[in-house]
Amino acid sequence: MAKSDVVIKAKGLQKSYGKTEVLKGIDIEVKRGTMLALLGPNGAGKTTTVRILSTLLGFDKGTVTIEGHDVKHDADAVRKVIGLTGQSAAVDELLTGRENLVMMGRLYRLTKDSAKARAQELLEEFDLVKAAERPAKTYSGGMRRRLDLAVSLIATPPVIFLDEPTTGLDPRSRIAMWEIIEGLKQKGSTILLTTQYLEEADQLADQIVVIDGGKVIAKGTAKELKAKVGKDRLELTFATDSSFKAATKVLGTLVQESDPDEKTVTVVLKDTNADVRTVLDVLAKEKLKFDAMAVHKPTLDDVFLSLTGKQVKEEA
Amino acid sequence: MAVELEFEKRPKFITAITDSLVMIRRSSTHIIRNTDQLLGTFFQPIMFLVLFSAVYSGAIETGSEESYTNYLMAGLIVQTLAFGSTTTALAVANDLQRGIVDRFRSLPMNNLAVLNGHVVSDVFRNMISAAVLIIAGFVIGFRPNADLADWGLLVGLTILLTLSFSWLSAILGIVAKSIEGVQWLSFVVVFPLTFASSAFVKPELMTSWLRGFAENQPITHIVDTYRSLLLGNPLDDSWWIATLWLVGIIVVSMPVAAWLFKRKTSV
User: Fold this and answer.
1) A265 and A173: one domain?
2) Which residue, of A129, A308, B113, B259, is most buried by count of CB atoms within 10 Å of its CB?
3) Is the CB of A110 less than 8 angstroms away from the CB of B2?
């Protein structure tokens, strides 16, 4: 039988803890060799979904298959084809990076030689060679995440779950992580990633599913979602009332919003690069000087605001 | 892919064993990597030995010609082994709470290997602790009178005792809500049980109600067996009562721990 084009398939997924409904019927399909981002705020049900898809958690209703294997009835077959990187890096703190990799390789049933060779390959690929013989507890946050991800790739599983792989990382480590994830995609892995960051989903994923309160509230490509959400905005702040007024006048219909108290003018950008240049050119021509300038990207808040009409709930 | 991966193709019961071997290796590496454990393995037995023999040697009657240090040794060994076995409880609780068990569960491995690893590494650690204790004992005047067969039996008894206590302690680690709770609980179990036994003082010298308990509880039988073997005395009924207890504990606690662990980690 030819392998199905849909690798990860969840239908009508429901899960409750007691009376609390965590998932209220989630449908997800990830096609072979693509990356899907599950986007949502804290408590939306992202981690619960990933735990169910990766055989760690049971569910009440619905069906889940990974590479055609049912997660409920054929968990062992599923485990052979998946790699999971959780939110909290699950590596053995006292073992070295290399020992962690070899150990997990052996538990995936790799032969000793294969496990060792693959460990070396991953250490090189994830820039951990220098730290290879140090216990994992001495690693920085970024290194630990890289090791954690490397560990889940030890047997090169074709399906990879990444549960908030960059949460809590500094910007540089985050970008390094993005490059690694991008690389996985190029090698043909099928990936499901959860994130709270629209930017991350936008950067990496082919498809985005937005969930909130255990329900799918939107799905589509980054482009499609953004079209719903709105554009980048340019915010200019002026030092004096006169320059603020003059700027509002010359920018004319470009101005979406102006705030005399703060002396700020907001311009919606259809094409970020070109439009910023146009605005600056207009201001320069009139010799108007602004005090501060900022480009605001649509955030998860904006997605939620436009999709649900409410702000992202703060985690209690 | 640069590296061609080769997978083992073995029947399930063999991979269950190799999984356990991998996990035993992991837990045993912890013995040297974990500084707290190292202190527990080497320093704590010596500290107890020096303190007890210095504080009590003049004050406690052994009721025979034996020196108190000779009397004390069996009790200290059993207490040290009991404390050593609580490492499994800590390690299991740690694994469950730090999320590494989730990682193991997402692998196509036998999950019970996690428990096997901790229990078996307790055996290694306890052997080291006991050896350290006996060597330190020599230095301060402990003079055993065991022949080769006795030493062999002592090794066997130590393995049996550790397996038994560590499986019991695995249960504690699985049901525990917090790591601090495990530490506290193992303390309040091990201390009273070892003190209210023949480990440090002859039960005859205790108050009547305590004496009744001390004379009949398993630790006393275990300690008495150790003492007879170490000092080359003839074995009395204690040895089979102790063995029965230890085997009984293993027979009950192993499946219970396995069941609890499966229940806690299954979907």
Assistant:
1) no
2) B113
3) no
Nearest-CB residue to A108 (from B1, B4, B108):
B108
Report how far residue B262's alpha carbon sits from residue B267's, in angstroms, rounded to the nearest whole number: 9
Is the domain of A216 the same as that of A250? no
Where are the domains positioned within chain B? 14-265
Contacts of B15 (CB under 8 A, 6+ apart): A109, B8, B109, B110
Contact B68, B62 (CB under 8 A): yes
Q: Does the beta-carbon distance from A56 to B102 stay under 8 Å?
A: yes
In a domain, A306, yes or no: no
Range of the domain at A88: 6-226
pLDDT digits (tens, 9 = 90+) for A138-184: 999 889 989 999 999 998 999 999 999 888 888 888 898 899 999 99
For the domain that residue A177 is a member of, what is the CATH number? 3.40.50.300
Q: Tell me the nearest-neighbour CA distance from A72 into chain B, angstroms.
A: 9
Residues B231-258 pLDDT 10s = 999 988 999 999 999 999 999 999 999 9
Closest CA to B81 of B20, B23, B40: B40
Number of domains observed in the structure of chain A: 2
Is B161:B81 a contact under the CB 8 Å cutoff? yes
Same domain membership, residue A202 and residue A265: no
How many pairs of residues across A and B have Cβ atoms under 8 Å apart?
A: 94
- B153, B159 in Cβ contact below 8 A? no
Do A175 and A291 share a domain, yes or no? no
Residues A235 and A193 in one domain: no
Evaluate if pTM is beyond 0.95.
no
Q: Which of A95, A99, A111 sits opposite B6 (nearest CB)?
A: A111
Show residues of chain A in contact with B34, CB under 8 Å. Answer: 94
Instruction: Kindly determine whether residue A92 and residue B26, on different chains, have CB atoms separated by under 8 Å.
Output: yes
Residues A52, A101 share a domain:
yes
Q: Which of B5, B33, B102 sits opposite A90 (nearest CB)?
A: B102
